[in-house]
């Protein structure tokens, strides 16, 4: 049922814990450690690593908080809460399987709000860059 709701809402794959797990290709810690792939994904993180030098870089699918410098004994939920206490996912504080429908919808709503803000910010940056080019052309022509 959850997957049907997510699919209909067109929420990207990282909304689901199993999809976040798939991103941790070279995670430096094993399942024996507290900071393992499953715990990271259940706390809302997906891997944003690009090479071995940043193998422990992870980002929250909802708030966008990016963290690295993880240690094997770190608790992903505690670290997420420590660095992004206002994240809606952290505030609910439940694993995906334990979420009520109303909580899932609340998270989906916040995701869409955050996504709209990110898109608006990118658009603003693009407009600002184009405005700079136009100003330069105007100055050159004078």
From TrEMBL:
Signal peptide location: none
Gene3D superfamilies found in the cross-reference section: Inhibitor Of Apoptosis Protein (2mihbC-IAP-1), Chain A (1.10.1170.10)
Keywords (A to Z) from UniProt: Metal-binding, Zinc
InterPro entries: Baculoviral_IAP (IPR051190), BIR_rpt (IPR001370)
One Pfam family it belongs to: BIR
SMART domains reported for this sequence: BIR
SUPFAM superfamilies: Inhibitor of apoptosis (IAP) repeat (SSF57924)
PANTHER family found in the cross-reference section: DETERIN
Designated name of the protein: Survivin
């Amino acid at each position: 049922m959850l997957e049907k709701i997510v699919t209909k809402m067109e929420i990207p794959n990282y909304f689901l814990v199993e999809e976040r797990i798939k991103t941790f290709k070279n995670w430096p810690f094993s399942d024996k450690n507290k900071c393992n792939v499953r715990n990271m994904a259940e706390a809302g993180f997906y891997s944003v690593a690009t090479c071995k030098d940043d193998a422990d870089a992870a980002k929250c699918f909802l708030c966008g908080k990016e963290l690295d410098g993880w240690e094997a004994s770190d608790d992903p939920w505690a670290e997420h809460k420590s660095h992004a206490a206002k994240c809606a996912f952290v505030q609910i504080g439940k694993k995906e399987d334990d979420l009520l429908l109303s909580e899932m919808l609340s998270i989906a709503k916040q995701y869409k709000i955050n996504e709209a803000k990110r898109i608006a910010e990118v658009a603003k940056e693009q407009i600002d860059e184009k405005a700079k080019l136009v100003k330069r052309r105007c100055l050159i022509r004078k």
